Amino acid sequence: MPRLQKNDNFIDKTFTVLADIVLKILPTSKEEKQAFYYYRDGMSAQSEGEYAEALENYYEALQLEEDPFDRSYILYNIGLIYASNGEHIKALEYYHQALELNSNLPQALNNIAVIYHYQGLKAANQKKSHLSKEMFTKAAQYWEQAISLAPNNYIEAQNWLKTTGREYYSA
Description:
By secondary structure, the chain is mostly helical. The protein has two domains: 8-94, Serine Threonine Protein Phosphatase 5, Tetratricopeptide repeat (Alpha Horseshoe); 104-170. It has helices spanning 10-25, 30-47, 51-64, 68-84, 88-101, 106-125, 129-149, 155-163. It is elongated and about 55 Å long. The termini are far apart.
């Protein structure tokens, strides 16, 4: 199960060693520990661009992880992979599942907004103004939520909201 560390990065190795120590001393079940190992291996594979391997590890982690908060991050990371592969519908599904378990994930809200914004630009380029406006409105709604949770983040989104007259939230 443990992924061979291909990365010789000192910080990655240190994190792995510390995580292993913490897992040994924390009173967690065998399943929770296995879930964490799969999650950690998934993150490692994802950072190296090994998306298929990362997905395998994340799906294994989901089978074992019971904590809703931890599951939300697994689902979020699965969404990241699908988004980076251009599978926006699947990415949206996983981001929404993550938010159902943990509504305090501004990064998921931001990523949903980014996808809707991209779809809005695509529709505008295809001269589909009604669809474009609808997608931009959705993007604005999700960016508003993300910004309300993390007011110091997403500066470009805040500027877009202001310059397009879509700003509803005042930080």
